[in-house]
Amino acid sequence: MDKNMDASIKNISKGLVIIGSLLLVTACSSGGGYQELPSAKAQPSLTTDIDNYNYLIGPQDNLEIFVWGNPEISGVFQVRPDGKLSTSLVDDLEASGKTPTELAREIESYLSEYVRDPIVTVIVQGFVGPFSEQVRVIGEAAQPQAISYREHMTLLDVMISVGGLTEFANGNGANLIRVVNGKQVKYSIRLDDLVKEGEIAANVDILPGDIVIIPEAWF
């Protein structure tokens, strides 16, 4: 082999090694898929007494705030994605996780600096609620989605909301994930027996924050 050609090949090889090293360093410094994110924290429901469930306000809820005798500071306001609310006279008030009554009393406290003996009513429009209170259904449901929790909701109510199972679902292999004492606990549920066979004994109570996972059947 010609010496000049041999030298050229060596130089090209060295150049490729240098370029590869630079690309690797760049990828590592910018993440490049080499760093693994930590798992999401198990968020317990904000509802502690399920027998006396009260709706909790969440981000993107629309709130009608009526101040008696003061229509100029009343109106409809949306809770921001950060869970806070700004009204005509109140800025950055934490609204998420509170009941409408709790929020009304807090707004009254703030308004008392400007209005004599304010009386406030908070009415929720377009219920969304905090993520910690929503029930999520993923996998082989006809319409996988997050559902706003309703008092005394059961598994059957959830399945009706998501349109039932797909033809590929392994309903009796489904699981329900629930946060108990700060830890995620997995429970087996029998959706085929409940939905297809009408076995009411397979129906169970749903709690705010539950996650229903429906796997695909292996035929």
Automatic annotation (TrEMBL):
Topology in membrane: Multi-pass membrane protein
InterPro entries: PEP-CTERM_polysacc_export (IPR017477), Poly_export (IPR049712), Poly_export_N (IPR003715), SLBB_dom (IPR054765)
Localization annotation: Cell outer membrane
Limits of the SLBB domain: 134-214
The entry's keywords: Cell outer membrane, Ion transport, Lipoprotein, Membrane, Palmitate, Polysaccharide transport, Porin, Signal, Sugar transport, Transmembrane, Transmembrane beta strand, Transport
Gene3D superfamilies registered for this protein in UniProt: Outer membrane lipoprotein wza domain like, wza like domain
Domain Polysaccharide export protein N-terminal: start-end pairs: 52-124
Pfam family name, one: SLBB_2
Membership in a protein family: Belongs to the BexD/CtrA/VexA family.
Protein name listed in UniProt: Polysaccharide export protein
Source organism of the structure: Vibrio ulleungensis
